[in-house]
């Protein structure tokens, strides 16, 4: 048996101020290790994000060619496509034209449209910088939704109430300074001034490298009251917050929570001004899991998954547990009831004493792994996946678990950039 908020329930909750993007999937068991054989393939580039709305699954990325699992015919479809969620049949009526990488997808509350975010400047041959709303059936641009100029890429989208939250590498929205974090009116696309947190203090490595202020990961509690952000910043709203912060969305305008930690203040490898990569909040909104890159460094949270409490909004927070890869990057995380799934180009979990090697007790977890949310210890679940750059997205549904990446082999089988692990039969 599994419990889940359905898409319809999630959409209905939007009217009550809840977060449409925080789909609270609760699996009661691990998904299987053998992915289904009917999923379509992206044949080049990277699949960055997966979204299911009703019977359709959407995939966004940098790919330009796709094909079905049952045909050798290659289809040119750049950066965004859709297919049937149970048969894998490619939806040939959904034909958006996007001129740059799609990195984030969110369902609109009407159930008829979706929001896309990324590095594009035109959608359907009309200027649309970094964010657009499109028909969920045809991919056509949505009438009445017009976004102001956004000066940079959008990597994260979250919908809560009538606010569409943006996280990414941009520095201004509509001519107003908004470094890394901003909000739009979800209906019209107009800039929403209620989320102005003044992210600042871009971190600089010992070699002088920086990537500028940006948000690399974020998530909203299911009730829409709190936003967790992570990325390259040292202050938020004028207060010290080292690469991670919690924002109160229940207030208008939004305010900074007292929640803070210094555990991500330490520098990792000089190659990473920020090593924060992804965050996912639990179904009850009381905790979240965060994953990082950064290279192994004793005493740090580089190359780790960690669980954090959200119930107490206080300073000097410490992780409930930490799981170390032993020096390999984690890029994605999903809290799915029975397990916290993590993805990247890791080789192991439970590996605090490994240094690019399997230390005592290390558990193999090639490209994707599963962690017990209570103990923080890895399950032996290990489908085996080509590592590549890494698993970019992990997306639980009521039927199982989707992953998106830049590689083609899972469980010894060809799965072009996309794979789906079903839940075991009841």
Summarize, please:
The chain is an all-beta fold and 426 residues long. Helices cover 2% and strands 38% of the residues.
Task: Please tell me about this protein's structure.
This protein has one helix at residues 7-14; strands spanning 3-4, 25-26, 41-42, 47-53, 56-61, 65-67, 75-76, 80-84, 102-107, 113-118, 122-123, 126-127, 131-135, 154-160, 163-168, 172-173, 176-177, 181-185, 191-192, 214-220, 226-232, 235-236, 239-240, 244-248, 255-256, 276-281, 287-292, 304-309, 321-324, 330-336, 339-344, 348-349, 363-364, 368-371, 393-397, 400-404, 409-410, 413-414, 418-422. With 426 residues, the protein is mainly beta. It is 2% helix and 38% strand. It has a four-stranded antiparallel beta sheet, with no helix packed on it. A hairpin with a 2-residue loop joins strand 4 (47-53) and strand 5. The protein is built from one helix and 39 strands.
Keywords, separated by commas or semicolons:
426 residues, 39 strands, globular, mainly beta, four-stranded antiparallel beta sheet, single chain
């Amino acid at each position: 048996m599994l419990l889940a908020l359905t898409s319809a329930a999630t959409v209905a909750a939007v009217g009550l101020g809840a977060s449409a993007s925080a789909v609270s999937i609760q699996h009661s068991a691990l998904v299987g290790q053998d992915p289904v054989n009917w999923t379509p393939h992206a044949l080049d580039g990277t699949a960055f994000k997966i979204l299911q709305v009703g019977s359709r699954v959407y995939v966004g990325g940098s790919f330009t060619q796709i094909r079905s699992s049952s045909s050798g015919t290659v289809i040119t479809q750049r950066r965004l496509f859709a297919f049937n969620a149970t048969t894998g049949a490619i939806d040939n009526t959904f034909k958006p034209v996007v001129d740059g990488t799609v990195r984030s997808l969110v369902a609109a509350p009407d159930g008829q449209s979706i929001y896309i975010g990324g590095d594009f400047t035109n959608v359907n041959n009309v200027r649309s910088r970094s964010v657009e709303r499109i028909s969920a059936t045809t991919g056509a641009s949505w009438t009445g939704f017009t976004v102001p100029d956004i000066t940079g890429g959008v990597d994260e989208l979250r919908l809560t109430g009538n606010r569409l939250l943006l996280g990414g590498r941009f520095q201004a929205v509509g001519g107003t300074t908004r470094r890394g974090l901003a909000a739009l009116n979800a209906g019209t696309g107009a800039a929403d001034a209620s989320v102005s947190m003044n992210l600042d203090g871009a971190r600089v490595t010992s070699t002088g490298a920086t990537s500028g202020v940006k948000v690399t990961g974020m998530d909203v509690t299911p009730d829409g009251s709190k936003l967790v952000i992570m990325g390259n910043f040292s202050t938020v709203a004028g207060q010290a917050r080292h690469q991670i912060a919690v924002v109160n969305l229940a207030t208008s305008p939004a305010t900074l929570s007292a929640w803070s930690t210094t555990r991500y203040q330490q520098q990792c490898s000089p190659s990473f001004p920020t090593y924060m990569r992804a965050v996912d909040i639990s179904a009850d909104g009381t905790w979240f899991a965060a994953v990082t890159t950064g290279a192994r460094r004793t005493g740090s949270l580089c190359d780790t998954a960690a669980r954090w409490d959200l119930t107490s909004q206080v300073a000097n927070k410490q992780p409930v547990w930490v799981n170390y890869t032993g020096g390999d990057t984690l890029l994605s995380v999903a809290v799915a009831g029975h397990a916290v799934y993590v993805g990247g180009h890791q080789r192991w979990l439970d590996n605090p004493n490994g240094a690019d090697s399997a230390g005592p007790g290390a558990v193999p977890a090639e490209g994707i792994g599963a962690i017990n949310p209570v103990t923080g210890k890895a399950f032996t679940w290990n489908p085996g996946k080509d590592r590549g750059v890494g698993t970019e997205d992990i997306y639980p549904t009521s039927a199982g678990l989707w992953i998106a990446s830049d590689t083609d082999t899972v469980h010894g089988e060809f799965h072009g950039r996309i794979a789906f692990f079903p839940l075991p039969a009841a």
